[in-house]
Amino acid sequence: MTSRPMHLAAHFPGVNNTTVWAEDAQTSPPPAGPGGRQIAFSSFTHLARTAERGLFDFFFLAEGLRLREHQGRIHDLDVVGRPESLTVLAALAATTERLGLAATVNATFNEPYELARRLATLDHLSAGRAAWNVVTSFDAFTGENFRRGGFLDRADRYTRAAEFVATARELWDAAAPDGAGQPVAHSGQHFRVEGRFGLPRSPQGHPVVIQAGDSPEGRQFAATAADVVFTRHGTLEAGRAFYADVKDRLPAHGRRPEDLKIMPGVTFVLGDTGAEAQENAMEIRRRQISPQNALYALEQIWGIDLSGHDPDGPLPEADPDVDSTFVQGRVKHGDPRQIAEKWRALSAEKGLSSRETVIEATGRQSFVGTPAAVAEQMISFVDQRAADGFILVPHLTPDGLDPFVDRVVPILQERGAFRTEYTGTTLRDHLGLPAPRPRTEAGRG
């Protein structure tokens, strides 16, 4: 049986507290001082070049507009320094040739003209490899770094994002080969733009638009505006349900199923045998969830100071404070009280300590096994339409992608599930996305 073609991307996992930095990294030693490997260009170049060696579609950078805090203190295990994505990718454009370059940029705290110009510039510099991961924010904590503060109601974040993307596309469409371009006159609920775009039409016309969001509003936004969806559904059943729901929304907007690629973020752990892979996966979890990190995970759920709690003892007896602002800058996934009850049940069932419960409950390894087994699992997800491909998040930074490229990619290629060479030059070529047709007249709001 011929497998469906698989799309692959690599995520640089440098903005979370579960990243394990390689002590024996093949890259140059980390620089001394604040930031270390997190802001070392060698870290970015190693992972990006590995992804390009593996013929991946694109390299993906997250964004952090404010560091997380515990009771007014910076999260100790958070990374020190979060580089601005487009700046890093502009530098990587000179060190890579075919790999797509995807930046996460917030649609709440930016303006369409300025960001459309920066993305088009990256598309020119990279000869058509730019992508924009659209994210939104409604919290006043992040907004304190910006003049407007937390002005945006939660219900308005997708309406602003949708208009933001539409306005950026009007600007890109108004560009002309000679740079003169058509005038733009956009007047909407959130933006008013009157002028001309200051760049020639970029190689892709529109940089690829990526969207991450699983809510009903996020799914609808993806169906109307995105080229790629970055989702977090990990099981085959959940992936198939999400895939069918989002793809079924496309015809109402004049789009075909192949016009939108669904790529969940996944992890992998390899071993020469299945048992060794499982042992490696558990060792990774132990390294990620140190005693101190376990307490931070508990504080995120309970919303109280647990600095005196014994991570090797039982879970906290107190109930979570659902109105707490003790932990700020993290996205909450679910009701803390329900999560605490699930963790207590898990702890009681298996006789686990606080730290062991966190390790068990927050396991993130998506595919665990031998290279052949991992390849088969991934092919099954794509063939059964739970995904069009995957955004790989290696646990070990910056060398964690190397084993996948060296040991799994060749198997995917042998199975006919993945390319053996780049056949195009732009990111749209890699993803099989149609080129947007330029407008013949100025965009209107």
From TrEMBL:
<feature type="binding site">
    <location>
        <position position="104"/>
    </location>
    <ligand>
        <name>FMN</name>
    </ligand>
</feature>
<keyword id="KW-0503">Monooxygenase</keyword>
<dbReference type="GO" id="GO:0004497">
    <property type="term" value="F:monooxygenase activity"/>
</dbReference>
<feature type="binding site">
    <location>
        <position position="158"/>
    </location>
    <ligand>
        <name>FMN</name>
    </ligand>
</feature>
<dbReference type="GO" id="GO:0016705">
    <property type="term" value="F:oxidoreductase activity, acting on paired donors, with incorporation or reduction of molecular oxygen"/>
</dbReference>
<dbReference type="Pfam" id="PF00296">
    <property type="entry name" value="Bac_luciferase"/>
</dbReference>
<comment type="similarity">
    <text>Belongs to the NtaA/SnaA/DszA monooxygenase family.</text>
</comment>
<feature type="binding site">
    <location>
        <position position="215"/>
    </location>
    <ligand>
        <name>FMN</name>
    </ligand>
</feature>
<protein>
    <submittedName>
        <fullName>NtaA/DmoA family FMN-dependent monooxygenase</fullName>
        <ecNumber>1.14.-.-</ecNumber>
    </submittedName>
</protein>
<dbReference type="InterPro" id="IPR051260">
    <property type="entry name" value="Diverse_substr_monoxygenases"/>
</dbReference>
<dbReference type="InterPro" id="IPR016215">
    <property type="entry name" value="NTA_MOA"/>
</dbReference>
<keyword id="KW-0560">Oxidoreductase</keyword>
<keyword id="KW-0285">Flavoprotein</keyword>
<keyword id="KW-0288">FMN</keyword>
<dbReference type="InterPro" id="IPR011251">
    <property type="entry name" value="Luciferase-like_dom"/>
</dbReference>
<dbReference type="InterPro" id="IPR036661">
    <property type="entry name" value="Luciferase-like_sf"/>
</dbReference>
<feature type="domain" description="Luciferase-like">
    <location>
        <begin position="35"/>
        <end position="347"/>
    </location>
</feature>
